[in-house]
Here is the input.
Amino acid sequence: MDDYINNLPVTANIGKFQDPLTTATGELRAHVPLSNPETIWFNTGTLCNITCANCYIESSPTNDALVYMSRAEVEPYLDEISELGWAVREIAFTGGEPFMNPEMIGMMEAALERGFEVLVLTNAMRPMMRKSMQAGLLDLHERFGDKITLRISVDHYSEELHDAERGKGSLARTLEGMGWLRDNGFNMAVAGRIAFHENEAQARAGYAHLYAENNFKIDAQNAGITVLFPEMDMSAEVPEITTECWGILNKSPDDVMCSSSRMVVKRKGAERPAVLACTLLAYEPEFELGATLREASKLVQLNHPHCAKFCVLGGASCSA
Ligand code: SF4
Ligand code: SF4
Here is the structure.
């Protein structure tokens, strides 16, 4: 999964995040209804060709905790969207590295044939650059054009910080993949990071420079196209979010990802996929909401530090 969340152990939240309905101080915990299902994510599997230092889903060449999803498993969910009459705009795929999954092209095709836009989060490295994947992508691009967007992980615009996270030489290989996408006319977006030492404007200027150098037509100033995640200190204390917090923070439950999306995963050893509240909490049983989208349309109780840190306070979103 190519979004950046520093996954260090949470040590400062003892006593908090226990009861789904109330906080440690007995107040009503905030919850989020699925008010506008807009994006359905599929986790294609946690295997990845590389091991990033802070991959929030702990992907690696050996982690198959979430196994490969198949086209046959994806299709019933796509059909259920129509049955439910949901106004879903986009089907998004994340991993792991989605192009490790041999059925990636078929899953994209299943979504595109039903009229959805398709977003794929990828590192644009060797798995995407294999001949079979290139051929499949070119065919889909010819048939569905701008309905497809590849959101590429450029962990940082500087080679030094990108490679520190992802391994030596990795920015060069990602830029090679992006060059292939550019030359073949694909829509590209980028997922990146605002490093501790810089502010958002500086980070966007850095990405703009990288795009100009490589002739990438990617808007560095558009937060939905160059999606930047702030670096966060996960050892810091996190407040619990109560129903009162929305008013205090001048935020709405509709602002957070679980109001507009769900993620389908298949756990190793499971007979069938399951639907989770969001992309950020893949391993938390409490955030597994059911086997179908209908079952998973229930309220989400914000009973995890990530809810406060990334969504309500930090404003991070995986679904821009
Ligand atoms: S490239 Fe792989 S290891 Fe790195 S953040 Fe993405 S999924 Fe995780
Ligand atoms: S981490 Fe964010 S999107 Fe996920 S359940 Fe918590 S508030 Fe919702």
